[in-house]
Amino acid sequence: MKHLLKLSDLSRAEITEILDLADQLKQEKKAGIPHPHLAGKTLGMIFQKSSTRTRVSFEVGMYQLGGSALFLSSNDLQIGRGEPVQDTARVLSRYLDGIMIRTFAQAEVEALAEYGSIPIINGLTDYAHPCQVLADLMTIREHKGKTDGLKLCFVGDGNNMANSLIAGCIKMGMKVAIACPKDYQPDAALMAWAKENGDFLCTENVLEAAKGADVLYTDVWASMGQESEKKQREAAFQGYQVNDAVMAAANPGAMVMHCLPAHREEEITAKVFEEHADEIFDEAENRLHAQKAVLVKLMK
Ligand code: CP
Ligand code: NVA
Question: 108-144: per-residue pLDDT in tens?
Fold first, then answer.
């Protein structure tokens, strides 16, 4: 594994290795055992969109691994004034040991990997959010003891989260059902792959998707970059909400997950959110541990 661009590039064995190392690093951290695997190394973090979790967890993660991290806002970089990503990649490769990038086009992340000579980590694009789903799989394993055979139901927009959940969960032996309006489906090629390689359903019917689910997952109706579509999306997504009726269709003891930030009373009710806050904030914490595992695998 040279980069983390999207989960469909990884094998089940590679995902499992990351999750096992993440569990180990989490235990070591809790026990106060230092693990300076990246002493002297520097991660550059390019952000073209906002972030709370990704920024802080990568920065703290590098620090805990004995290295350092540089926050590079696209407002300040020449990339924001049109310097090509191909040149940026070649320059930054001479200074840094790895780059985490959050941007719009997946093609930009792939170009960084093609032209640079250091590991590139996708910290969210319009297409994918692989770091989030590694943390999600870690959290599912912690709470349910396994991934194989469990059913995950995603309710809402067929966005970057839906795409990465399809890739990651199908690879880890889970069943995946997506409930979304027909104009907001996940990536067509990824859905075709999922149908061929696992148990996959995409439907407009939320209760059908939620039936027998072990994990309910949702995300905002309008992602970063879609602010101008907010009104239209609010209308299109009415009913695509994780609420008591959806929980009643799921298996007893089903988990609820959300990548955050959450919009209460839109994609999830405040009641369901608070009833499952322990799971949701374990998930947020696990961003740190899962990403530290990715950093060690790629940069050590
Ligand atoms: N879930 C997630 O990526 O959060 P941030 O946008 O705060 O980084
Ligand atoms: N789908 C959301 C996820 C945020 C972590 C977005 O792209 O804004």
Answer: 999 999 999 999 999 999 999 999 999 999 999 999 9
Q: Kindly give the number of the ligand 1 atom that is closest to the alpha carbon of 123.
A: 3
Q: How far, in Å, are 39, 176, 262 from residue 203 at the CA level?
A: 48, 11, 23
Task: Compute the distance from residue 196 Cα to the ligand 1 centre, in Å.
Answer: 31
Active site residue 143: no
Q: Which ligand is nearest to the CA of 51?
A: 1
Tens digits of per-residue pLDDT, 14-67? 999 999 999 999 999 999 999 999 999 999 999 999 999 999 999 999 999 999
Q: What is the CA radius of gyration of the chain?
A: 19
220 C-beta closer than 6 A to ligand 2 = yes
User: Rounded to an integer, what distance in angstroms lies between the CA atom of residue 238 and that of residue 181?
Assistant: 9
Ligand having the closest approach to the CA of 133:
1
Q: Which amino acid is at 296?
A: V
Find the catalytic residue in 132, 157, 241, 289: 132
Say if residues 81 and 57 touch (Cβ distance below 8 Å).
no
Nearest to 205 by CA among 180, 224, 187: 180
Structural contact between residues 86 and 115, judged by C-beta atoms closer than 8 angstroms: yes
Is the minimum distance from the CB of 286 to ligand 1 under 6 angstroms? no
Q: What is the side-by-side order of every strand in the sheet holding 42-47?
A: 68-73, 42-47, 98-102, 120-122
> Could you write out the DSSP letters of every residue in 17-38?
HHHHHHHHHHHHHHTT----TT
Full-model pTM? 0.98
